[in-house]
Fold this protein.
Amino acid sequence: MPLSHGDQVTLLKDILNNHQTDCCGSVSECEQLERLVKSLMVNTQIDGNVKNILQEVYQYSQNGTQSSDLDQHILSNQENLSQWVNDIDQFS
């Protein structure tokens, strides 16, 4: 059963929150973020402001999957992670 738009947004925020809180994550979480963003980007119900945020999250996740030190990548994006979650909450 596919995830609803709301479930996808919730999962996206959960992963971002976990990265922000734990200061660590996995390549598979970054890959999941990429899949979620791709799915949400084609959804016509998504606010244009959220699409801009999703582009940034996608870039973050791509850089994370290619990083030789994923935990450092997450640590260096702490401010972005909390901002993205706040912005998504504001627009969705």
About this structure: The CA atoms of residues 64 and 73 lie 6 Å apart. The mean pLDDT is 95.
